[in-house]
Amino acid sequence: MNRRILHVVTNTAHFGNSAHLTGLWLSELTHAWDVFAASGYEQRIVSPKGGRVPLDPRALKWPMRDASAKAWLVDPVKMALLSSTLRPTDINPSDYDAIYFTGGHGVMWDFPDNEGLQTITRALWEKGGVISAVCHGYCGLLNTRLADGSFLVRGRKITGFSWTEERLAGVAREIPYNAEAQMKARGAIYEKALLPFMPHVVTDGQLVTGQNPFSARATAKKVVALLDGT
User: Fold this and answer.
1) Could you tell me the residue ranges of all domains in the chain?
2) Residue 129 — φ and ψ, nearest 5°?
């Protein structure tokens, strides 16, 4: 049977109550999608509310608007996937081998406390599936607890968009929390690259995380390696 991957994307279109637009960081989806497609995996997309997914305008400009993102933007079939995403209640975790949380600052608002996403993640983890995230996507793992009540990330190595990168991106004063600090507060062993905005992937058993948008392909390739046993 083909492997099946569940991508998680945001429904949040702006920073808090401001006019600062955000949404899915498109290349974090497309880069991973390309890697999984090359391995013949089946792929689905879910969001906290289902339905339409906004795109972060910053991710649609050079250099983030690369060939992978451009190809998605001009493909009506692919774009339709972002107009009608599934809801967590539509998902049977037993149908999937891995979950992949994408980023974009919007996820900081709608990923952490979504019980449906937590239920899916917990079920996948406890059946031995791969849990993965890139950039801000790791916010989706902040509050996920296992059956024993412990945080999934406690005592595990993890990476994601760093506080240094938030400051360099000029948005540190607009975001609702410091994700790096929150991960550490939950007992996660946070790691990052020596230099900001460099590709960096951390693997701890069945948990795979990438630090920033430039880590999406490498994150997906590691997921493939784990699933295929290579």
Assistant:
1) 4-228
2) -75, 170
In single-letter form, the type of residue at position 6 comes to L
Per-residue pLDDT of the chain (230 residues; tens, 9 = 90+): 689 999 999 999 999 877 899 999 999 999 999 999 999 999 999 999 999 999 999 999 988 899 999 999 999 999 999 999 999 999 999 999 999 999 999 999 999 999 999 999 999 999 999 999 999 999 999 999 999 999 999 999 999 999 999 999 999 999 999 999 999 999 999 999 999 999 999 999 999 999 999 999 999 999 999 999 86
Half-sphere exposure of 121 (CA within 13 A, CB side): 31
For the chain, the first-to-last Cα distance in angstroms comes to 17
Third-level CATH fold of 4-228:
Rossmann fold (3.40.50)
